[in-house]
User: What shape does this take?
Amino acid sequence: MHGFVAEGFIVNISASGALVLSDLPVAVSTRVLLRLPTDQTLRAQVIRAVHGGFAIEWEEFSPSEVRTLLRQLGLERAALIASLSSLQESLRAVSDRNN
Assistant: This one.
């Protein structure tokens, strides 16, 4: 096996690929193996090098591991929005009582 191991952060993820922040210098068309936060690994190819990272495209469009992760992120986002909405209502009620 040839290659390098580096740490990075997925900052944007979709069914087709992701943006990875990493100090690893990679060239366009480089094949990479990414380990997701779930410890699953996915094969991808670098499609663009950007300052401080690179964009990848999954070898398989919309892999099940990514769909699961996107669902989990959506549920977490929905829970956060619901909490913020509840907090706003509480603050509004306190404000109304003080006026």
The chain has one domain: 8-98. The radius of gyration is 19 Å. The longest strand covers residues 41-50.
